[in-house]
Amino acid sequence: MVSADSTKPTCPVCNQADQVKTMQAAYNSGVARCAPPDMPTRNVSMMKPVTVCGLFIGICLFLIITLIGGLGSNFPQILQLILLVITLILIVTALAVSYWSFQRVVRGDNEAVELYPAWDKATAQWKSLYYCQRDDAVFDPKTNTQISNNQLASLRASATQAIKSELQAATQH
Question: Which domain of life does the protein's organism represent (predicted)?
Answer without folding.
Answer: Bacteria
